[in-house]
Design a protein that fits this description.
Elements (H helix, E strand, L loop, with lengths): L2 H37 L12 H10 L36 H11 L6 H4 L5 E5 L11 H4 L4 E5 L8 H4 L5 E4 L17 E4 L4 H11 L24 E3 L3 H11 L16 H12 L2 E5 L31 H13 L4 E2 L5
Parallel strand pairs: 1-2, 1-6, 2-3, 3-4, 4-5, 6-7
Helix pairs in contact: 3-7, 8-9
The structure holds 2-acetamido-2-deoxy-beta-D-glucopyranose (4 copies).
The site of one 2-acetamido-2-deoxy-beta-D-glucopyranose (NAG) has 2 residues, from loops.
């Protein structure tokens, strides 16, 4: 080869070489960043489980025959320009509750998840159930590392940080499970997500937002009469999720026949279903009830409730446990602690 030809070749190879070097640099820095993030955690970093294809595959294998729905909350705009929004009444649709919702959403005026979470390419989520299983687990610092931490009802955080962490991105609740002062066990930024099971639940919120006379009828337990939370942090969960949890995940009859008592999903299984829709990684902790034969075993990581207090609930706990088992077997969810 002449000197000139060699020179030309070198010039041609230069871009290729350059591309190769930048590729390797990019790859290595990524790997280093990932391993760096990973070494600080006893469990595998939840971020290392990220990867679009993985999640897509999982969602497909769930056989729900629905697509992922990432708009979590009802918006005021939903009620304009649209007719016949829903054929179902609460808890599975908004039929008959449109006016109440219009009033509630006009005041809350925020319908989004914070942009810092919304824009993440991969969202890691953990759903913290209130079960006894999380007691003494020391999972707190692990739980705090997820992008989204979902908690349920009025479960406390202060005094239990070691086991349950202190980060709360969203808290799912309904009036009977509301705390009058959300500031006690949440962060200022925590989204307070109302799960409307019945019209009274929306009316309760409307009465608080507009400071109207409280109607006490229609609750199975008296809800708080005052509520000290930040109104801009209130969200109303789209009943679509409860509908799909009941219909697709649990396959419970939406219209029970005759004397059959109505069965509705718990906020716990609902939150797992929402997380499957919204998140790319879904881990859970604090799920599961003690063997129902042991009536005196405490069921929560706080307080003194036992299985006895669950006797008259509108939930089918065995059925939900089976659904969680199926999700676990499919690899769609992962428990952070050993469980039955
Ligand atoms: C962590 O990752 C390794 C290899 O990828 C896997 O074998 C192990 O089960 C994982 N551990 C947990 C707790 O996910
Ligand atoms: C899935 O959805 C399609 C269209 O909505 C419907 O025709 C089909 O029967 C569904 N399949 C199952 C297994 O539910
Ligand atoms: C949790 O730890 C405390 C203190 O170490 C102990 O007294 C208690 O029995 C433990 N509870 C459970 C359920 O293991
Ligand atoms: C959570 O705990 C950590 C350390 O224990 C603390 O630095 C942080 O401010 C706490 N966050 C909240 C929201 O309480």
């Amino acid at each position: 080869m002449s000197q000139k030809a060699t020179k030309t070749w070198c010039l041609r190879l230069l871009p290729v070489l350059f591309f190769f070097i930048s590729f390797v640099t990019y790859y290595c820095s990524n790997a280093i960043l990932q391993s760096y993030g990973g070494t600080t955690k006893p469990l595998n970093s939840s971020k290392t489980l990220c990867g679009g294809w993985l999640t897509q595959k999982k969602w497909g294998s769930l056989n729900f025959n629905i697509s992922r729905h990432t708009e979590l909350f009802l918006k005021l705009e939903d009620f304009f320009w649209r007719e016949h929004l829903s054929k179902l009444a609460l808890p599975y649709g908004i039929k008959g509750s449109e006016l109440l919702l219009l009033k509630v959403l006009a005041v809350t005026a925020n319908y989004q998840v914070p942009a810092s979470i919304e824009k993440l390419e991969c969202r890691t989520c953990v759903v913290i159930g209130n079960g006894f299983a999380i007691k003494n687990s020391s999972l707190g610092s692990i739980i705090n590392k997820y992008d989204v931490v979902i908690r349920l009802n009025d479960a406390p955080v202060r005094g239990y940080e070691e086991d349950v962490g202190n980060k709360t991105t969203m808290r799912f609740f309904y009036p009977e499970s509301a705390s009058y002062n959300p500031g006690l066990h949440n962060e200022p930024s925590t989204l307070m997500v109302l799960v409307p099971f019945k019209q009274q639940d929306l009316r309760w919120l409307k009465e608080i937002l507009y400071n109207e006379k409280r109607v006490r009828k229609g609750f199975w337990k008296p809800p708080p009469q005052i509520w000290l939370g930040d109104i801009s942090k209130i969200r109303v969960l789209d009943p679509h999720f409860l509908h799909q949890t009941a219909d697709r995940l649990l396959q419970i009859p939406l219209h029970p026949k005759g004397k059959q008592a109505p069965v509705h999903p718990t906020t716990g299984i609902l939150a797992v279903f929402v997380a499957l829709n919204y998140c790319d990684v879904v881990h859970i902790a604090g799920f599961g009830y003690p063997n129902s034969r042991s009536q005196r075993q405490p069921i929560h990581y706080y307080g003194y409730d036992t299985m006895r207090s669950m006797k008259n609930s509108y939930h089918d706990l065995n059925h939900e446990a089976e659904a969680l088992k199926r999700l676990e077997d499919l690899g769609a969810i992962l428990y952070l602690h050993p469980h039955l």
